[in-house]
Amino acid sequence: MEPFMDAYLSIDRRQRGWITEKDLENYVQRNKLDPSMITRWSELFDAEGTGRITLEKFCEVLGLKLADIQKRREEHGPATLHPDIKVIWENMALTDQIILGEETIQEFKSISTEEDLTRLSESLKSFADRQLGGVWQVVIVDGSYWTTQTFLPNMAFQFELYGRAYLFWQTAEDEPNIIKT
């Protein structure tokens, strides 16, 4: 059962006590796993079709004790940022910083030209919108910068990675309604 526990804990990086199908999709993609895992887990752990797999239901189906999962989480130790990430400024939960930092490192691997940076910025914004919810702004800076920004409480993170600064901040909790005339 340890591989199942480790997988669940890896997917629930924010330690919410539940995961979504989107969380599963991101995990499968990030770890290059068989996409059928998403369907299998949904059928096993979310038979009611709620869209969430709770830690309680996960334990119930596998015959695990909630205390065992919590102990396993503690054994993994406190979550930390990747050592290549240098925090410039943060007003965000560490678990969310880790999510954004890991995704930036993963996406950075596909960069081969300066033009790819536009795609990287778009991809990171889309990821933040999906994974953390709301509406995010993402800026990638090569060199010095000064910024003043308005953001939702506990939803801003700036860090340096591989010689560039990455700025993330959430400006709204919901997608704006765009009215076309």
From TrEMBL:
One MF term in the entry's GO annotations: calcium ion binding
Lineage: superkingdom: Eukaryota
Entry GO CC: dynein complex
InterPro entries the record matches: DLC_sf, EF-hand-dom_pair, EF_hand_dom
Membrane-traversing stretches: none
Any Pfam family the entry gives: EF-hand_7
GO process annotations (BP): microtubule-based process
The protein's name: Tegument antigen
Source organism (scientific name): Clonorchis sinensis
